[in-house]
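Most newcomers find our protein records easier to grasp once they have seen one. There is nothing in a record beyond a sequence line and a structure line. Getting from the letters to the tokens is the skill we practise here. An example says more than a description, so a record of this kind follows:
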Amino acid sequence: MLCFKSELHLNQDGIRTGDGKATLPVKDLFHQIIDEVQPSLVITTGTAGGVSAKHDLGDVVMTRGAKFRLASEFEKEDFNGKTFKSNWNVPAARLKDAVTLMKTFANKLEEHPVLPPTVNYAPLNLVHKPTRQNDPDIKQDGVDPTMVAFHPILTTDYFEFGTSKNKLDLEGGAVEMGDAVLGLAIDERSKDGRSTPNWLVIRNCSDPQINGDLYHQKGNTKQSLQIMYAVYYYKGYGYWTSVMSALATWGVIAGLP
């Protein structure tokens, strides 16, 4: 087994080659790793933005699908909007064990009450709201009722997050910046006769779906409160939510025949 962290993201590593087009170094990296290591399975894992109100902070989205949702450096590339699938049956023998381990860290995912920005806000009983208890679980495509078969991860080239208004959950299971590139690389390899390993996306919800009503500004700043909360969750819970996807990844690998 090879564990590798690339530090590559679609919104920061490419060199522009034209309007809405850029180089894609992470795709070259995927090709190089597959050529040199010849793996039977490639898993991408790490943090992601939750898009469904039914997915808790720390839940793990596990899917064999990935879709490009690009609007910046790669907006005019031919692969924008394309969806890729890995026709592979995920071994389930150890996934329940993984969930059991995940739940032992549920106390690390407890959300404290959200207080009003000043004490002048009414009703002041807002300060007595109970803590939010999250129950980490695996949301597997084709298994969990919130994830139809191959419900894709959404890969963007800009900072995007799910809200109760933008309905990203209808389009995919979570949002991040790179997984669909693996699907693109595998698709290219299948067309030119190179080896094509199975692949899987395992992403933890490091920030939950954000309330779409959280803004009172006008114009381009209308999302400022939404962004503030998305960043707050990511910074405050990124570590422990990542533990969840690491355990889910273990569950898949441990269950391999």
About this structure: Strands lie at 16-18, 21-22, 41-50, 60-63, 65-68, 83-85, 138-140, 153-155, 174-176, 198-207. Helices lie at 25-37, 95-103, 179-191, 224-254. The two ends are 14 Å apart (CA to CA). Residues 224-254 form the longest helix (31 residues).
